[in-house]
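Lab channel / #folding
Pinned by the channel admin:
"Please post every new chain as: sequence first, then the structure tokens as a reply. Keep commentary short and put observations after the output so the thread stays searchable."

First post following the new format, from NK:
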Amino acid sequence: MYKYTLHLDHVCFNYLLNSYNREHHFSIDSDTLLMKIIKGQRLSNADLCLPLTIIYKIKPVAFCLVHFSYKEKISGIGNIWFSNVISSGDANALKIMFAKIFDLASQYGFIRGKVHNIYGPIHNSILIERGCRTFSTPPFSYNMPDNTIALCQLLENIGFHKEKDLIEIIYAYDKRDELLSNIPNKLLNRLSNIEFSLVHSDEILNNQQSYADLYNKAWAKNWGYSPITKDEIGVAARNIENISGMIAKKNNNIIGFTMLQYIEKSGEKFARAFLSGVLPEYRKTGLAIVLTSKLSSMALKNDIKQFSIAWMLEDNKMIIRTMQHMTRYGESTIRNYRIFKATQLNFEGNCNELV
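Reply from TO:
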């Protein structure tokens, strides 16, 4: 028989670490896993966030952070979601875990009557990994999910289905992609009253509220949106290695930005564009193209030729087409990170196996 706990002791944690390292491409130590879980809890905007572990005999065989809210906190996903999922490969344990999530939601008064859904892996914070890697090939982008395909297959096998994909473009620079280093005069003339400047961590810290406000205005109507705080911008500026950004200002107000970080391993430099926003009234003006071009030009001057552009919601066709147009000559690959959905009915009766 299985049992559950909402507390992580030392023995449980060591078993979870082993399971995590088996289902991910990179092994981590216990301190790193603990910080992932603690950060996932601390940064959750849910009304209640619990660490749920399913144990078989004495070994934990499934784990996740479960997030409950009385009202929707992440656009489009209702009031129950999960993150930081870990599995030993026991499909039955996963079914029991998700059944218990609905049981807890009912106990705590988060659901009443009607059939509910659960979504994940997803988190409200930009600082926490989202989605499941649906592919096995390298490279492995910094601070992106590195799970094996087995985790996706397990979720599908127990009744989860795709809700949305987050898109990443992996790109190797080709000099024929001129928009990454040269902006057409016609476009520059159209935006001649806008000032552009390169910023680094200190400048980002000094304007963290402005970035948070702009991001929230830019993405408020998108599926999966949840408000970002100035504190999250501050954490990113202080902790993301080699962070830089390109900002656009009009009348001394920030109207758009894009941020990038680069990592150097074994003599190779790799950049990830990971956070951006343009005020709604400046969409379709070419501002996003100019921001991307100016920042990528800086990267190219620093001999960075490998890029990850992520995440882009699959529904944002215009953004994806723009990035594909800007990178059309170089070798590129589109990769999907999946957010799943399942209904309460998928797990009816599974709680009966708990003692």
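NK: The mean pLDDT is 92.
TO: also worth noting, The domain at 174-329 is CATH 3.40.630.30 (Aminopeptidase).
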